[in-house]
Amino acid sequence: MTAAANQSGRRPTTSRRLERAGIRDVAAAAGVSITTVSDALNGKGRLPDETRSRVREVAERLGYRPSAAARTLRTGRSGLIGLTVTTYGEEPFTFTEFAYFAEMARAATSAALGRGYALVVLPASSRHDVWGNIALDGTVVIDPPDQDPLVSELYRSGVPVVSDGKPGNCPVTAWVDNDHEAAVLGILDHLTESGARRIGLLTGTSTDTYTRLSTDAYLGWCDRVGQEPVYETYPAHDPAAGAVAADRLLARPDRPDAVYGLFDPNGTDLLAAARRYGLRVPDDLLLVCCSESDVYAGTEPPITTLSLKPRRIGTTVVNLLIDAIEGVDSGTGVDVGRLFPPRFRSAGTGPPPGTLMPTELIVRASSQRRSTRTTVSPPRSPGEV
Amino acid sequence: MTAAANQSGRRPTTSRRLERAGIRDVAAAAGVSITTVSDALNGKGRLPDETRSRVREVAERLGYRPSAAARTLRTGRSGLIGLTVTTYGEEPFTFTEFAYFAEMARAATSAALGRGYALVVLPASSRHDVWGNIALDGTVVIDPPDQDPLVSELYRSGVPVVSDGKPGNCPVTAWVDNDHEAAVLGILDHLTESGARRIGLLTGTSTDTYTRLSTDAYLGWCDRVGQEPVYETYPAHDPAAGAVAADRLLARPDRPDAVYGLFDPNGTDLLAAARRYGLRVPDDLLLVCCSESDVYAGTEPPITTLSLKPRRIGTTVVNLLIDAIEGVDSGTGVDVGRLFPPRFRSAGTGPPPGTLMPTELIVRASSQRRSTRTTVSPPRSPGEV
DNA sequence: CGTTCATGGAGAAACGTATCTTCTCCGCTT
DNA sequence: AAGCGGAGAAGATACGTTTCTCCATGAACG
């Protein structure tokens, strides 16, 4: 039996079952070779339009669907992108960051689909069990902790990794983050303009980038302006602790006359605490919190919020990742050499390219003594990366 | 060159690049055959523990990761499950059902991961572009419309499909749904017990299962009890229309003294409308709405909600799907015959197996004149499917 | 008239795994 | 002594593509 015969007419022993048509079946039915079918369907090769359309028609008639697995094996591309939150364990999403994460994930999914990729939501834990069984073209990592072993291993094995949140020590292909410093400074300026004399901060105990950069920006501002820092911290993943911390902040002897809360529930918590202490908002206390929720448009009074624009972040992250996947990738040592002669490339030691995205301050009644309503984007500090 | 030599020592022309170690490399390094490596790592075959552990150690040292694509191609299993919402177009998730969908998707993701599968979120539209490029072992479909071509095609091509929401006409492997009729009847009973004389309904215009079954249950109840139906409909995906409809309902000459709203925002909308008309809740108007949000625990007054328990649904759907994938699958004509002799199987015409899950009524102040707080599960009507 | 070139297409080699089949020992039974 | 059976492991094939290489045929061209 020649190889050709083996190639075209097959399945000698097993009785032909009810199986999906393969490319061979299409080729046989159309009276052409496998190559021609592949080229015709993928728009490659040089074929007259007549052949192309005929093959397409036969394929359609046979209900032919190319095997994704075979294609992935051959091309090395699966069209799949991993999405993971590494900061907090277990559950794939975290309640605390839910609104942000949900929006971000939604935008990321849309952006990926728009470019022909699909997203797979994966937990940061359970490494090989799941991660190893999926062919991923790349991974989006949200807020990776320093030295994340998962990210390191992915990167080392050549999978492009783009992180949402400036990474600490783990190497990534690229990263995207908000300009948290500019955001905080913008808020502090805004509150100052609204007449705040002593601005307090409600922040978290964890060491993720967001918390750290925001708190540092606040402390630096205090230092420059000459205000004594007034802040309370609590574990951000614990909603109950947030309410307690809000209360603590307003119970201090050096009670602030304006507060910025870093986390989504801080707005309502601070509002409730203020009520308990008989403080009117905004008259006695100016309030701003970071949130993606629009319930703050309906509170009494409406609360000024900082939006991190998760949609924009998600879209940007995915586009960067897909660029890295499809472009001349700057992975560890993957060969580019066949097309381009070896040339100088920054070899791993240089910092990965980062992108800072502006935030948006949605000014509502809680942060202004006069009753104008405007939307202000904090100025980007031009010297930043 | 013998085939054996070809098998073990390869890559003659291309200079050995920085590539991931394959199973061949492990075999060579361990001095055994590919078969032995495969068996050792997968816990199959008959190998002495010594060989097994040695192979494992070599694999570890080489950083060997089996190729997911190759494994998928060989075994026909990818470990990937699709998740899609088909009801409303474009965006992968719909705002209206967001809380429900998010919870359900989260639970589904967890359940899948617990069994070694990962979830891929896919849009119902853009058929071949994306769906065709991913090897899916099965698909979860949320609320498929009647005659959904996507579902039909998936099912026809042998991919198990389990739907959240009883499907209309499309064939599915199995489905899961809440016992919407029991839920509505439970609410109507509860409201009646709280003193309601004329119960109104705020419902949707779309024809999905949830809306239809709930509305029918209401109308049937009215018919039995002898109450004239009092209801307003609006397109559920339009939040603004919801507020208007709530207002319409309370503006009617035959104004109800109790209302059940089928959709998440109805609670606040009805509360606002009641306020406009000077109606006190629960004194003048009893209120219940279907929602997964816990904001209704904090409204003034707190509003009784019906929870569809999306976590439970998501978990159940995924487990049913994976059972179908791994068990003796009842797909169209896929062979089971190699292991079991042909035998009588219900061949497609029988209705797919469905599971009804109970809902949970979280009773709060808005639906009771007396101020006790309890949680009541509506009784399941035993005669139902 | 011989050489190049473009066109249309076929052959066959991977991609990396799982698994069915076979082979070789070697100790044991009858 | 012959046969048997099981342990341990290797051979080889198939999974279904993509793609690199190569072949045939004419037409254009000098």
Oligomer: homodimer
The largest sheet of chain A is: 7 strands, mixed
Any idea what the shape of chain A is?
A: elongated
Biggest sheet of chain A: strands side by side, in what order?
A: 7-6-8-9-10-12-13
Q: Kindly estimate the percentage of residues of chain A that lie in beta strands according to DSSP.
A: 15-25%
Structural class of chain A: alpha/beta
Largest interface, with counts of residues having CB < 8 Å to the other chain, equals:
A-B, 48 and 48 residues
Instruction: Using the CA coordinates, give the radius of gyration of chain A.
Output: 27 Å
Please report the total strand number of chain A as a whole number.
13
Counting DSSP H or I runs of 4 or more residues, the number of helices of chain A is 13
Characterization of the model:
2 copies of one chain form a homodimer. By secondary structure, chain A is of the alpha/beta class. Chain A has helices spanning 3-8, 23-30, 34-42, 49-62, 68-75, 98-114, 127-131, 149-156, 180-193, 209-225, 239-251, 266-276, 310-326, and strands at residues 80-85, 118-123, 138-142, 161-164, 174-178, 199-204, 230-234, 258-261, 286-290, 304-307, 354-357, 360-362, 375-376. In chain A, the strands form 2 sheets. Chain A has a 7-stranded mixed sheet with strand order 7-6-8-9-10-12-13, with helices on both faces. In chain A, strands 2-1-3-4-5-11 form a 6-stranded parallel sheet, sandwiched between helices. In chain A, helix 11 (239-251) crosses helix 12 (266-276). The first copy, chain A, is elongated. The N and C termini of chain A lie far apart (66 Å). Strand 2 (118-123) of chain A pairs antiparallel with strand 2 (118-123) of chain B. Chain A binds a DNA duplex (30 and 30 nucleotides) through residues 3-4, 7, 10, 22-24, 32-36, 38-39, 42, 44-48, 51, 66-67, 69-76.
